[in-house]
Write a structure and sequence with these properties.
Blueprint: H1 17-36, E1 40-49, E2 54-65, E3 69-71, H2 73-83, H3 86-102, E4 109-113, H4 117-120, H5 124-135, E5 142-146, H6 149-152, H7 155-167, E6 171-177, H8 184-189, E7 194-197, H9 199-203, H10 209-224, E8 228-231, H11 237-245, E9 250-251, H12 266-269
Parallel strand pairs: 2-4, 4-5, 5-6, 6-7, 7-8, 8-9
Antiparallel strand pairs: 1-2, 1-9, 2-3
Helix pairs in contact: 1-2, 3-5
The structure holds ligand C2E and magnesium ion (3 copies).
Ligand C2E is lined by residues 45, 60-61, 72-74, 77, 93, 113-115, 145, 175-176, 199, 232-235, 253-254, 259.
């Protein structure tokens, strides 16, 4: 199977435009083979409540490329979106995440990131329903993470799709909140369970005073709308203490746990291996 991925890299100097295009093309080619060969898998990062209890995990995609090593999702998700491979890839990852969570002894939540393209193409509610039936995962344990990008394109369709997903009993989180363009009025129109404060704000707590003001405001906004608030990217004790003091409901970050293969968290999940 290795032959599929053998590439001759002739570009040792800076890439010209066409070299860059060729590299992107190769990445998309490799990606198709990688999906077929199941080279893409998920790492799991724990999420804790303010009281310090484990509430669940976020599934984060990893591609271990035979020659290039680990390719981050910031590189291959855009390539998958451009090539249209995101739909089969997303199906595979959703199935993996739900099957994994269904294997845990503890009824923890599992959060899965979805691409804006999955809203525009493909029947996301039907896919979710099929995956829940196939894996036996309770719908309340699944949370989909969407970004503000899905809210600005095709409002009516997004609204319909989100309500159909909500009707399945699945939770919906708005990821990277504060970095996109969504109108505040959308927040109460869309059936959101969770707001995730972007880690750029968390990183600036104690560094730039407006980060504290924004974080405090997002927590208050979430609570006023009856939406739970998660802070991502918590790396220090000071950040954690600030977030707990301000009433943030859940925290996630390297300080609390890194994204790792599921086996490594078996003691926390009660994973049946
Ligand atoms: P995200 O959903 O906002 O995920 C959080 C990112 O922050 C992850 O990066 C995670 O590893 C990283 N992170 C978590 N805690 C910390 C921390 O304390 N400090 C720092 N510096 N970083 C932290 P990752 O895994 O590289 O993923 C990047 C983005 O790629 C994700 O952002 C998400 O938008 C996207 N992504 C990842 N997996 C998938 C997937 O399966 N499907 C789709 N559509 N997108 C995905
Ligand atoms: Mg996310
Ligand atoms: Mg996020
Ligand atoms: Mg983020």
């Amino acid at each position: 199977t290795g032959a599929v991925n053998v590439m001759v890299d002739v570009s040792s100097g800076p890439q010209t435009g066409s070299d860059a295009a060729a590299a992107a093309h190769h990445l998309a080619d490799d990606l198709a083979a990688a999906i077929a060969q199941k080279q893409l898998h998920l790492h799991y990062q724990p999420v804790f409540s303010a009281a310090g209890n484990l509430s669940g995990f976020e599934a984060l995609a990893r591609w271990v490329h035979p020659e290039r090593g680990v390719i981050p999702p910031s590189e291959f998700i855009p390539a998958a979106e451009e090539s249209g491979l995101i739909l089969p890839l997303a199906r595979e990852l959703l199935l993996q995440a739900c099957a994994e969570a269904a294997s845990w002894a503890r009824p923890l939540r599992i959060a899965v990131n979805v691409s804006p393209l999955q809203f525009r193409h493909g029947d996301l509610p039907t896919l979710i329903d099929e995956v829940l039936v196939e894996t036996g995962l309770e719908p309340e344990r699944l949370e989909l993470e969407i970004t503000e990008g899905v809210m600005i394109t095709d409002f009516d369709r997004t609204m319909l799709v989100l309500h159909r997903i909500k009707a399945l009993g699945v939770r919906i989180a708005l990821d990277d909140f504060g970095t996109g363009y969504s109108s505040l009025s959308y927040l109460h129109m869309f059936p959101l369970s969770t707001l995730k404060i972007d880690r750029s704000f968390v990183a600036n707590l104690g560094v730039a005073s407006e980060a504290a003001a924004i974080t405090r405001a997002v927590i208050a906004l979430g609570h006023a709308l009856d939406i739970e608030v998660v802070a991502e990217g918590v790396e220090t004790r000071e950040q954690l203490d600030f977030l707990i003091d301000e009433g943030c409901n859940y925290m996630q970050g390297y300080m609390l746990g890194r994204p790792l293969p599921a086996e490594q968290y078996a003691d926390l999940t009660g994973r049946k291996s």
